[in-house]
Amino acid sequence: MSIIEKAPAKINLGLDIAGKRADGYHDLSMLMVSVDLNDYITVSEAEGSSIIIESNSLRMPLNEKNDVYKAALLLKKRCNVDAGVKITVEKRIPICAGLGGGSTDAAATLRALNKFWGLHLPDETLLDLGFTIGSDVPYCIGGGCALVSGKGEIVEPLEVSLSAWVVLVKPDFGVSTPSVFRDISPSISRVDISALREAAEAGDYQQLLCHMGNSLEDITIARKPFIQKVKDRLLKCGADTALMTGSGPTVFALCQSEKKADRLVNSMKGFCKTVYKVRML
Ligand code: C5P
User: Fold this and answer.
1) CATH number at residue 14
2) CA 16-21-24 angle, 5° bins
3) Residue 198: which CATH number?
4) 100 carries a ligand binding annotation
5) pLDDT tens, 115-130?
6) Claim: this prediction has a pTM higher than 0.70
């Protein structure tokens, strides 16, 4: 028997840094939304009590450093599961991109094994376990549109009816999240997440565009000016807005017509190899 779980990527419609905490982490406020670019996690039985990871990606460690492995081990220990498990990760979401690929895989592993082993743990427990793996994992347990705060552990799902085409442009380099967070200064630009939330809940696309923003964008662009070029080009080609997601480097553009999204994809392809046209989920 095996179980397949879909692991969608996320984008940040808003990311605000409210301040630095005593533990060195930051208080965040983020409006996140899932998009239909997915990894797939398949879990099946393995001999003994081993955790075996397989993947089509050559860029991912297949050992205990992998967040998928960490998720399986956590659940095994927490629920005293003796059985072995093979986890196959079909990677489609680019790695180190700001699209939450590692976090969504870890969350999907928790969901899949919760079913596979018949554990019946509630989402809140999966969320707590996920938080010990990474700050974006709690959000990824439920996905969709949500307001995320604290260090990432406070997740409030939102009822919104947003619909837009999303064009994702991933430059050919990765960005280290801890190094971006290290460069945060008191003069960082702020984002009004409450206004953004209001716009999202009202389904007011124009207001949404007005309030979108990412406090980390200036920091990553200062190191990788190419990201600004991607944004400029997307806007020049007719995007309604263009914003970096997470700590970067992926930039996403929003537009309401599919024709426009297709035009954006075509004009970005000569500029960057990795371009996707997706929908918000
Ligand atoms: O939790 P995760 O491993 O995803 O976080 C990556 C890095 O992002 C942390 O090492 C930290 O530097 C930074 N971070 C932060 N405050 C948060 C979440 C992440 O400073 N709330």
Assistant:
1) 3.30.230.10
2) 105
3) 3.30.70.890
4) yes
5) 999 999 999 999 999 9
6) yes
